[in-house]
Amino acid sequence: MENLIDHNLAEQIVYAVKEICGYNINFIDNTGIVYASTDQARVGSFHEIGREVALQKQKIEVYVDDSYTGTKKGINIPIFYDEEVVSIIGISGDPERVRKYGYLAERITNLLIQEKNLQKTSLDEREQMHFLLTSLTQGNNLGSETIKHMLKEHNLALHSSFRVVLFHLNSQDPDINVAFFEQEIKNYFGKETLPLLTYNYPNDYVALINPQLFQELDAAFKQFADMYQGKLRLAVGNRCLLLQCNESYRTARIALATTNYQENYCDFSDLLLEILFAKLSDKQKALYRNKVLGHELKPEELHVLQVYFQCDMSLQKTAERLYIHKNTLQYQLKNIEKKTGHDPRKFREAALLYLALSLNPPQECLD
């Protein structure tokens, strides 16, 4: 099973499924160990029902949290390959609500498993590019003759460096059209500019670009993201050698996690504190954010804090940006202190507020 579904593929599957249904997803091996999850806190834990699903070879629903070791309420579905259970997909949440996503999760998983095992003989030019980039960004098949042949065919030297650029489409937008965006990306940057580009189901485009060209196109990437604000997020990974592009892909995913559809562009090399937040679960982020900011701050007060920190805690600059008098700003900051118990004008307490504000609130905590 390790050769069929490795950690990278399992992570791709759980995030692809969550993107569609919005619930936390666990990928469990036949021994009951969670080895990929959208809730990082559960990775490596024992999932008793996952083990039972592997033994019984049938779906099991759980209606009460912690009624079994390491198990929360939800549905757990066996994934078959060649008539054998190769893993288990768990969808956390009320079974009555998540049951409808079971078939979808199973279908996505089977499609991605089949895709991984495609052979070069059955690939057309587009599929070959997808196979090549998927192998590079997931660190798979790198020693195979197929990959060596493809690298030579595309004049890709092992000592050359690349950065991964992720174009992430908003699946919640009813007007999103994958084919349209593929054409828009190619039209805007040109096929020659981004020759190493592929589509990752369900809503990512992945490109490899050399660092020199990236420097020239950085402003163009930001402009493209701004053109489709609300529909697209764009994230850039670290610079890595060709055969280490899985690390660039990993850091691009971290950068993506720090964005939203308003602030929709991020370069991993610009991140600092956000790197520390990358492995926190949605629940952990929400717990800290709510503990520091509370539930009483209005959107306009959160905006005041954002501008205040963007202006390096300068009252004069903040007041000018907000088009208000400095005394009015002082009053608003005092009101924020009353509601949160933290004074934004004191460095240590401002640091707590800044960290909480930096944690994008999750859309939904359903685990």
From TrEMBL:
Superkingdom of the organism of origin: Bacteria
Occurrences of domain PucR C-terminal helix-turn-helix (ranges): 302-358
InterPro entries the record matches: CdaR-like_regulators, CdaR_GGDEF, Diacid_rec, PucR_C-HTH_dom, PucR_C-HTH_sf
Ranges in coiled-coil conformation: none
Domain Putative sugar diacid recognition: 5-133
Ranges of residues in domain CdaR GGDEF-like: 144-257
UniProt xrefs under PANTHER family: CARBOHYDRATE DIACID REGULATOR (PTHR33744)
Family from the record: Belongs to the CdaR family.
Protein's recorded name: Sugar diacid recognition domain-containing protein
